[in-house]
Amino acid sequence: MDKLSFAVLNDIQRRFSNVNAKSSLTPHSRGLMENTGLYHQLSQMEYNGNAFILLEKMHMDLANFTIAQMRPYIRQQAVQYERSKFATFLDAQKDCIQKVQNGPHR
Question: How many domains are there within the chain?
């Protein structure tokens, strides 16, 4: 496992190690859950749910990073596109001006 994957897994474990399903249970329910193994299943479900939330945030962070990295190239392409469209527009305007200057043909 590379260092980045190890760091991400450590971060996930650190962020969600404080998840505690026992805090909202009565002592009797807590005892039943521990004896039957339901607490372990519940805590795993919470851990998995929180891990997916973290992965979604990481996905959005990656998308924002990609957009930030591509922004200069996108702007450069947009400038070139606007220049070509403006040149086409000016060429069309020259034809109109020449037709008006030549006057109507009868």
Answer: 1
SS (H, E, C) 24-59: HCCHHHHHHHHHHCHHHHHHHHHHHHHHHHHHHHHH
Q: Give the whole-angstrom CA distance, residue 98 versus residue 102.
A: 6
Read off the pTM.
Answer: 0.37
Residue 94 in domain:
yes
Distance between CA atoms of residues 39 and 30, nearest Å: 8
Q: For every one of its 106 residues, what pLDDT tens digit does the chain have, with 9 covering 90 and above?
A: 456 666 666 666 665 554 444 455 555 555 555 555 555 565 666 777 777 887 888 888 888 888 889 999 989 999 999 999 988 888 877 777 777 777 776 5
Establish how many alpha carbons lie within 13 A of residue 64's alpha carbon, considering only the half-sphere containing its beta carbon.
Answer: 6
Burial grade of 48 (CB within 10 A; 0-12, 13-18, 19 or more): exposed
Domain that holds residue 40: 20-102
Contacts of residue 9, Cβ cutoff 8 Å, sequence gap at least 6: 1
